[in-house]
Amino acid sequence: MQGNTPQESFEGLSIDISRYTNNFKKQKNSRIQQNKKSACKVYF
């Protein structure tokens, strides 16, 4: 998951949030496309 180790957290090292947020838009678009492919055809 690329977060801090327990020792790093204990020592107060902050987490680099950009490692998690850099690809949010790309991931969101990917999930939307995947959801459209598997949508129930009865109601749409």
Structure commentary:
The chain has 44 residues and is mainly α. The chain has one domain (6-37). 52% of the residues lie in helices and 0% in strands. It is built from three helices and no strands. The longest helix has 14 residues, at 24-37. It is elongated. The mean pLDDT is 81.
Characteristics:
about 45 residues; mainly alpha; 3 helices; elongated
Short description:
By secondary structure, the chain is mostly helical.
Helix content: 40-55%
Counting helices, strands and paired strands, the structural category is mainly alpha
Radius of gyration: 18 Å
Our count of domains comes out at 1
User: Cα distance, first to last residue?
Assistant: 36 Å
Shape, per Cα inertia axes: elongated
Low-pLDDT stretches: none
Order of helices and strands: HHH
Total strands: the figure is: 0
Alpha plus pi helix count: 3
Strand content: under 5%
Described by strand count, sense and barrel closure, the largest sheet is: none
Please describe the topology of this protein.
Layout: H1 6-10, H2 18-21, H3 24-37
